[in-house]
Structure formats: structure tokens, C-alpha cells
Amino acid sequence: MPKKGIMYMKEDEKILILDFYGQYNQLIARRVRECNVYSEIKPYDTPISKIKEINPKGIIFTGGPSSVYEENAPMIDQELFNLNIPILGICYGMQLITYLLGGNVEKANKREYGTTTVTLDNTSPLFAEFGTQNDCLMTHTDFVKNLPEGFVNIASTSNCPNAGMANDSKKIYGIQFHPEVNHTKDGIKMIHNFVYNICGCSGNWKMSSFVDETVKSLKEKIGNKKALCALSGGVDSSVAAVLLNKAIGKNLTCIFVDHGLLRKNEGDEVEKIFKEQYDINLIRVNAKDRFLAKLKDVSDPERKRKIIGEEFIRVFEEEAKKIGKVDYLVQGTIYPDVIESGSSKGQTIKSHHNVGGLPEGVDFEEIVEPLRDLFKDEVRKTGLELGIPENLVYRQPFPGPGLAIRIIGDVTEEKLNILKEADYIFRDEIAKAGLDKSLNQYFAVLTNLKSVGVMGDCRTYDYTLALRAVETSDFMTATWAKIPYDILEKVSVRIVNEIKNINRIVYDITSKPPATIEWE
Ligand code: XMP
Question: What is this structure's pTM?
């Protein structure tokens, strides 16, 4: 079984986040990075020797679902308090500090969840430049009843008298609420205060530092060995590939499986950027016929998805085998993928798969995931730092199964061509109208409905095309976009005039939920 490899970077100035399994941990890391300080998440039981080696300027204990009195509650080595490194405990982190340093944690009768007004002692360096009250997100059952010796109270709510505590001389702080989420007003300023006022960071980290450091550590790790990357044409795998190319040049080979289900011209654009701009070893496999053959007469959306996902891996495996043994397999996994694949409790609405799942029988030793800790917007910034063209970096999300799930019913080459052209016109008009930055996703769907129309003096019996455009920030929920009628009209007239086989256009006015963004 190949080892899972995560890239760690060697930064001079770093905040260490000790993970107690809280749901917002990556968000804490991200907020620290937004303060221009690099942060790294490690398990709560990371040995002291390792922590000394990391030499962080400060440590944050995250929240977590446990109670300190529980059997097997995650604990830390108390030696951590003697390292003279500033500590901020959030939620469970605060309770843990209290428990270990001799204070008292108790269970409340009922869980407190929601945004609450917190009274702050704004003379504390943690709350510098705050007023005396602030809206903060509380989500806890246990609470700190008595502070440990040497600590003073710096925050309270009507329900929770000890919502914040400080030991300024030891630079140990605890807060019961979550500064990392948007529900806490100006929470990032609290993190900023901790990182700057308390830990003394200078804030010299930027996205370009991420690029430099990652390239450096990839170089050290991979050296002269060989790496293989599956390119899908999407942002994540493209950024991962360019990072690797910067680090190891021709020792990286990219395989771009073109399933023929990409948007108009997209396959050629990807090839051009990677071959011409970056001179990357790129193998493009034109596998359209193979995918269409597998999809023949298949109209069930889930089957389409499964077929495409599996076929993608098979094509990749075949090409990879021709190359022979490689040492590393590069994946463009980003943090939201890590969360999604980690949460197994939800019902499967659609089997989303990101092209580039794990191939079998490909000979490699370790997986490299240089973007594993980043959020999508951070990946985009990294892409821009690397000089990847804006139109690729800001490409709207495109599903792994491609246009196959935007053709309702069975997929044929003819339908694929119709949809490609129609979608191209829609995108063209949206860009001309200057709406391409404000709409988060917009595309055409070829329905399997035919209806009667009239063109010139002739009867037509052709396809109905649906236009879909949504505004969303997380793609979990979305509102249908109120595109001005005159733009919709232009699109409609152009598509019906320029594309044979479409005689009717409809605009999708459902939000998500109840609909989903894609039609299949
Ligand atoms: P839905 O249709 O579930 O889509 O509302 C939410 C977002 O996910 C994209 N999507 C996919 N992305 N593989 C992907 O990589 C998939 O199988 C897939 N299905 C949907 C969709 O385009 C939207 O942005």
C-alpha cells in the first residue's frame, strides 16, 4: 500500500495548530495564513520532541467533540506548558488547559449553540481594538467553572461566566467561543492579535512563500526521482502539476486523459498551456471514442458517473504502465475534498468524484498532495503566483463526468457536439455582458425533450436546451441567477439561429435546494 504523503514546509515563523478533532480546524489554519503567518496542523499527541523541532511561535489548541473527563479524552503532554511558547486554547482547547492546570470544568445542563453577545475585557492583548461587547459563536456543553491558578477572566456571557481566560505572564489564553468562523464578528482580528501581539510574529508569509517553500521541499523530497500526475484540466490538478514541474522539471510526467466530454476547445487549451507555457512532459490521451462506447445507451445519471470515473482510471492506468515505475503519484487534492471524503454520514445525492482517483496496479510508492491544506481560493492564488493564465485559474467549476451529465438521457457524439456549441455561445454572451465574474456557475443542458417549432415556413421538431446559472459561495446551496432578460434573449436568438437541432430554449429558475446545480 503506497504511503500517503503530505507536504510539510519549513517556515521560519510558524503557528502550530494541535488538532483535537474540531470541525473548524482547517479554518483556524486558514485564518492564521490570512494574517500572513504560516500555520500547520498536527495531531494533538504530536511528541514534544517534534514540537520543539517545529519550533512554533505559538500553538493553538482547537476545539473538539470530547469532554475532558471522558475516558480516552485527547490529552497533551503537560511539558508543553513549560516550553515558553504562547498558547491559545479554543473551546475544548480552553477546557483542556483548565483541566490540566488545576481549574475546574463542568457539564452544563444543556448545550449552548449559536451566536451570543460576549462581554470582553478589551485591555487583554487578545482583544485589543475590540469594544466591550462582541457577537461570537458558542458551541459547547462543558464550560470552565473555576479558572486555574494564575489566570484571570477576560470574557463572559450570561450563560457562561468564564468565556475567556488569560495568564499574561505565561502567555496562555483560552476562549470558549470560535474566533475562526464568520459568525464571530471580527474573529480574525482576535487571531491576528494572538499571532502578532502575543506570539510576536512579523507576518512575512505570503502565497508566494507557499510556492517557494513548497517547491523547495518538493525538490528536497523528490530529488531526482520520478513523479506522475493525472491532469483533468481543472484548477487543482493544474496547479499541483505546475508546482511539481517547477520543483522537478522533466522528472514529472503528466497524463491528461481527455474523455471528450470537456467544453468546446478545452482539451486543446489545456494541452497548449502545459506544453507551450511550461514545457511539461505531457501525454494527452484522446479517449473520446472509448468513453462514448462505454456510455452508449446509458441514461441513468449515476451509471454514467460510475462508468466515466472507472474508465478514467483505466485509461490512466494503461498509460501509466507504459511509463513503468514511478516513485510518486501527484494528486491535486484540496482541503474541501479531504472533508468531503471524510464525512460518510450524509446520504449520497450524487456520487461526486474528482477525476484522478487512486489507480490500481500503477507502480508508485508514495502520494504527493501539495495542495492538501488549501482552500479553493488559496489554490487559485497559488495558480496566479505560478503564472497560470487567469482563464484557467478562474475557470468555473466543471464536474469530473463533464458534459455527459449535462446531456439528459443517453450520450451520443451528435448531442455532445450540439451541447458544446450551445454552451460556448452562452458563455460567450455572459462574458460579453461582463457577468462572468459575478455568476458562480453557468452552463447549458441538453434535455432529451423534443418539441415542435417553426423556422422560416417550415415545421421543426428539435431539442429543447436549458440554460442554468447560479450564484453561490459554497455550492452546497445556490440561488438561480437573475440574468437580465435582454441577455437571455440574445443567447436564445443566437443559439436557435446558429445551432441546428435546437428550436427551444428554457431558463432554469430553481434554486438549490430543492434542485441541484447540475441536472444529473
Ligand atoms: P450539484 O449538482 O450536486 O453540484 O448541486 C455541486 C457542485 O459540484 C459540481 N459537481 C461535480 N464536481 N465531480 C466534480 O468534480 C462530480 O461528479 C460533480 N458533480 C457535480 C457541480 O458542477 C457544482 O459545482
Answer: 0.76
